[in-house]
Amino acid sequence: MKVLIIEDEKKTATELKRMIESGRAGMEVTEVIATVKEGIERLTSGEAPDLIFSDIQLADGLSFEIFKEVTVSAPVIFCTAFEEYAIQAFESNGIDYLLKPIDEEKLEHALRKLEHTVIPSFREANEKENDYKRRMEELLRGMESETYKQSILTYRKERIIPLKTSEIAYVHSTNNVTTAHMKNGNHYVVDYTLDELEKALNPNLFMRANRQFIVNKESVKDLEYHLTRRLSVRLTVETEEEIMVSKLRAKAFLEWMES
């Protein structure tokens, strides 16, 4: 079997390659690629792999984007450092996952499952119905809804209040205090840093504007260039101070607004 690894951490990719090739005779890792862009290019042209191991969070985005753009006939084993994924979606679609850090026992279990159940079901499905793309799209929809936090908790005395992330207009951090400001005007102190929330919130909806603010795309009212080519961001709710996006980040911020 020819195996393709999509992984942006070199150490992880090297160790995974070693485990695959030493644990299974006849399995050969033919290539390791590190970005969404490379993944699309590789799977669009060239010989198709028999099996794909793919990290989910890559340097230039989520690997989901690769499989939205390209239809592949090979089963995919996703590798992730997070547990908040739709495991049932993996199983119902005949696709497995490995939770990082990956060890040889976990890998062996996934490969046994692949040999006995996944590969036969994929071959049968592709030969009889050619419905792989539909199944992958269903998987991606299920996974994307579970990849990022749908709610975060805040604590007021003895009460625990869940905050729907979709209702957060922006998050502000000052003096080591992080506050979630809601679309309805309420605000709550949350036990997260901005760095933690940047990773936990869906990047399709939320973006880090600067060191103090994360904003929800749906709450952006308008933007204005300053003479320094920085962007001023106005939201549909009042903010404690002006939200500025640096000249270096302005292009990426505008592309995110359009995406």
What's the number of helices?
Answer: 8
Q: What is the 3D form? A: elongated
Structural class label = alpha/beta
Tally of separate domains: 2
Instruction: Examine the coordinates and then state which fold CATH places here, giving the name of the CATH topology of the largest domain.
Output: Rossmann fold
Quick synopsis:
With 259 residues, the chain is an alpha/beta fold. The chain contains 8 helices and 17 strands.
What does this structure look like?
The protein has 259 residues and is α/β, with parallel strands linked by helices. The protein is elongated, with a radius of gyration of 21 Å. It folds into two domains: 2-147, 3-Layer(aba) Sandwich (Rossmann fold), CATH 3.40.50; 151-258, Beta Barrel (OB fold (Dihydrolipoamide Acetyltransferase, E2P)). Residues 85-89 have low confidence and may be disordered. A five-stranded parallel beta sheet has the order 2-1-3-6-7, with helices on one face. Strands 12-11-10-14-13 form a five-stranded antiparallel beta sheet, covered by helices on one side. The protein has helices spanning 10-23, 36-44, 64-69, 87-92, 104-128, 132-147, 194-200, 247-258, and strands at 2-6, 28-33, 51-55, 57-58, 61-62, 76-80, 97-99, 151-156, 159-164, 168-174, 177-182, 187-190, 206-208, 213-216, 220-225, 231-235, 243-245.
Features:
Rossmann fold; alpha/beta; 17 strands
List the helices and strands and how they pair.
Elements: E1 2-6, H1 10-23, E2 28-33, H2 36-44, E3 51-55, E4 57-58, E5 61-62, H3 64-69, E6 76-80, H4 87-92, E7 97-99, H5 104-128, H6 132-147, E8 151-156, E9 159-164, E10 168-174, E11 177-182, E12 187-190, H7 194-200, E13 206-208, E14 213-216, E15 220-225, E16 231-235, E17 243-245, H8 247-258
Parallel strand pairs: 1-2, 1-3, 3-6, 6-7
Antiparallel strand pairs: 4-5, 8-9, 10-11, 10-14, 11-12, 13-14, 15-16, 16-17
